[in-house]
Amino acid sequence: TKPSTFLVLGDKTSAGTLAIISLSRDNFLPLTLEKSTGAVDGYLEGATLNTRFGSYPHSTLLDVPWGSQVRASNVDTGSRGKKRRRDATDEDTLIASQDDDDDSTAANAPVKKAVTAPSGFIYVLRPTPELWTTSLPHRTQVVYTPDYSYILHRIRARPGTRIIEAGAGSGSFTHASVRAVYNGYPRDADDVKGKVFSFEFNESRYEKMQVEIGHHGLDDLVKLTHRDVYNDGFNVNGESPNATAVFLDLPAPWEALHHLSRRKLQKGGEEAEEDSNWVSPLDPKQSVHICTFSPCIEQVTRTVTELRTLGWVDVDMVEISNQKINISREKVGVNYPTEKGYNSSPADVLEAVTKLKSLAERNKDTQRVQALQTGAEGPDSEMDLDSTPNRENQPSNSNGAVDDMEKPWMQGRLVHRPESELKTHTSYLVFAILPCEWDEEAEAAAMAKWPCGN
Ligand code: SAM
After folding, report:
1. Ligand 1 pocket test: which of 173, 196, 201 has the largest number of ligand atoms within 8 Å of its C-beta?
2. Both 262 and 378 in a single domain?
3. Is the CB of 205 under 6 A from ligand 1?
4. What does the alpha-carbon distance between residue 86 and residue 105 come to, in Å, rounded to a whole number?
5. 454 in a domain, yes or no?
6. Ligand 1 pocket, 229 CB below 6 A?
7. Do 275 and 369 share a domain, yes or no?
8. By three-state DSSP, how is residue 347 classified?
9. Are 311 and 345 found together in one domain?
10. Which residue among 141, 217, 377, 435 sits deepest, i.e. has the most Cβ atoms within 10 Å of its Cβ?
């Protein structure tokens, strides 16, 4: 089996694999890299990623080390680029035709104007569950990283764990849990058993997720089942997943809990009719840890009651209040020391102006400079290290202010601010444990292992 790029760190990007494209700090895009078809009928390039930060033929993103920064193509190969002929005379211009939407006439389209292609850059990142969570196509509310990292820790998900998850939704939790339980390739080895058993009753979500799981190379580790778990429980083809960890992100988790028992029970804990074919979906030899994820306290109350009724213990509830804190140097109006004492002129303004000038010179794309001036989000505003003027070449003011600002602590006060955007779906997490049943056989086995046993 080909190992998933989500799980096994390869060196370089390759065709047919998923990459996460970082457009700016909080702007990620999933992209399946395609092999370049080369020039076809006089046109350059095959698949191209077009962004407001420039165009990136996939050929420029292939066979590069994960994490590479890739500059935009000199020529915009975007919608207008479809019409660019291979014999274009000026590689730094793109030729826009009169009729942008008509491909059939593209090759012969009269040249209307030449536009300089924007020169941005992107990073090509290896997919991880965290990056997938921030870039995946949302079909439902999803569980975010601050929640799932805590949940996976509390339900003891570790390499080799068999975990039950419902509903699968958009697969955010699925990807995080599969990495937690993954314990190596090849998957047919006897000692390899970590697996996620995921259930989803919405047909279209189930189908989309099945495609994604296959595409991400995770079919061996995720068994996705189209199922209403309230009615039909958690066994797969009549067989037990033998789970020791359970995560329920369902509107009514209490409707499904009676299926997660060691004996056949009805909702509310009453014994169900004898059924010799019935098997528990839980590992009979180990305690089981569960987490349910519910936005309302009423859901929590009903879940807790059902958990207690069914014999779960150590029931508790947690709410994750995640807050991102942004730390930066505050330069505006800062006093910084110079040889002649403290300088109160706003050196940050000088620096900002110099930066803008150098940007404008290097990149004639005035729109992007305006975006920078207005603080609009974009690679240049946050990450373009190359566009930062070289301090050594920078003019210093009469007090030698720029030289003094070489030292980080002179570049302003260190300030921290909580970021307003909270990327978590606020929910209450209910945790509980179902101990394994203890009988004479279990006692004998335990005593046999016990150093002081008979
Ligand atoms: N945890 C998911 C994630 O991180 O992407 C999101 C789950 S979403 C909030 C809840 C999902 O539960 C929905 O996709 C819904 O279709 C599914 N669902 C609701 N009732 C269900 C049931 N009885 N059986 C199986 N799935 C169910």
Report:
1. 201
2. no
3. yes
4. 16
5. no
6. yes
7. no
8. helix
9. no
10. 217
Report the candidate in 199, 209, 196 with the shortest Cα–Cα distance to residue 157: 196
Mark whether 188 and 232 lie in a shared domain. Answer: yes
What contacts 406, CB < 8 A, 6 or more positions away? 391
Same-domain status, 222 and 368: no
Q: Whose CA is nearest to atom 19 of ligand 1?
A: 250
- Which region, left, alpha or beta, applies to residue 311 given φ > 0 means left and ψ of -120 to 50 means alpha? left
Residue at 397 is within a domain: no
The two three-digit tokens of residue 258, written as one number: 């009676």
Write out pLDDT tens, residues 285-303: 899 999 999 999 999 999 9
Compute the distance from residue 165 Cα to the ligand 1 centre, in Å.
Answer: 9
Is residue 193 in a domain? yes
Report yes or no on 370 lying in a domain: yes
Tell me the pLDDT tens digit for each residue of 65-98.
999 999 998 754 444 344 343 333 333 333 222 2
Is the CB of 147 inside a 6 Å radius of any atom of ligand 1?
A: no
Residue 19 CB neighbours (<10 A): 26
Is residue 45 domain-shared with residue 186, that is, in the same domain?
Answer: no
- pLDDT tens per residue, range 29-50: 999 998 866 555 545 557 889 8
Residue nearest to atom 18 of ligand 1 (CA): 167
My answer on whether 64 and 109 are in the same domain is: yes
Domain identity same for 217 and 362: no
Please give the residue range of the domain that contains residue 259.
129-322+425-449
- Quote the Cα angle for 71-11-28, to 5°: 50
* Spacing, Cα 139 to ligand 1 middle (Å): 10
145 C-beta closer than 6 A to ligand 1: no
Total domains in the fold of the chain: 3
Q: Residue 230 Cα, ligand 1 centroid: separation in angstroms?
A: 11
- Scan for tokens 């279990």, then name that residue: 442
In this structure, which residue's CA is closest to atom 24 in ligand 1? 228
